[in-house]
């Protein structure tokens, strides 16, 4: 009987992927499976970049950011012809289960693959965007937040020294989670995210009043999904009358050594993924919700809209008005 489990990473890399790879390999072997590694994500699945894993291959990776398996966004995987090629690569090696560490798009890809060829998979949520429905946490978020925190703390030093305003754009695709948590934890004055309506007139009245009372500098955080960074920079400069600079943090947010939280979460998710496959799950996503680990069927995750935590939503209001 085939007992190969292939482990892969897909979509945007995030810190915590490496600890998840290591744990999945080691735990799968302990449970009597033959672990394989897929390099280059879905592209590698198609192009047969699949090797049996050994302890050596996954040693010394715990502290490294990104993914040692590398990742990709593959147009070809949308095409059945290439998915069939991927299936044949797995079949030849006796691989009958997959663990995918990635985001919602990667889960949809593997769900399509399951519908085509019946290869069960378990998904481990890993994306700095924290935009996966059904889970409060995705691997990489804490590390990204710490990098953003460090950057904003540094920007505050120069903002206060020069009595300037700074607009800082953070990643997150359509999700405002990174921006909002960063704004709250860094004490920003303004935060614009796609999920929360904002009112520049009210923000203007508030900032002018604070400046009249002695405010010397301003920190404003925007989520990339608002596409407001350039406009807000000009608006603060011209309307509020404070010299303003823009910093787009960009891909620096995706790198860095995983934090303790990301390492521990990676282990929990990886063990849960192997256990879920052993228990007969066919397309389950590992989740962490209200302090509890569990799994959800793919439809409750990849085809649902992510919703911002209502408590965060309420805290965001004062920063957007
Ligand atoms: N319906 C689908 N059918 C086949 N392949 C798909 C499907 N949806 C997504 N994919 C594949 O999954 C890849 C990864 O998805 P995506 O680029 O959205 O990243 P992600 O996994 O959501 O991670 P992140 O959002 O953090 O970058 C896509 O580039 C594409 O190759
Ligand atoms: O790395 P790429 O392909 O430029 O994609 C950037 C996107 O990926 C993410 O970093 C992760 O999904 C988003 O926050 C960002 O919009
Ligand atoms: Mg995604």
What does this structure look like?
- This protein is 41% helix and 19% strand.
- Strand 7, helix 7 and strand 8 form a beta-alpha-beta unit.
- Helix 1 runs parallel beside helix 9, helix 2 crosses helix 3 and helix 5 packs across helix 6.
- The termini are far apart.
- The chain has a 7-stranded mixed sheet with strand order 3-2-1-4-5-10-11, with helices on both faces.
- The chain is elongated and about 70 Å long.
- It has 2 domains: 185 residues, 3-Layer(aba) Sandwich (Rossmann fold), CATH 3.40.50.450; 114 residues, Phosphofructokinase domain (Rossmann fold, 3-Layer(aba) Sandwich).
- It contains 10 helices and 11 strands.
- The model has no long low-confidence stretch (mean pLDDT 96).
- With 321 residues, the protein is of the alpha/beta class.
- Bound molecules: adenosine-5'-triphosphate (ATP), 6-O-phosphono-beta-D-fructofuranose (F6P) and magnesium ion.
- Magnesium ion binds next to helix 4.
Compose a concise summary of this entry.
The chain has 321 residues and is of the alpha/beta class. It is built from ten helices and eleven strands.
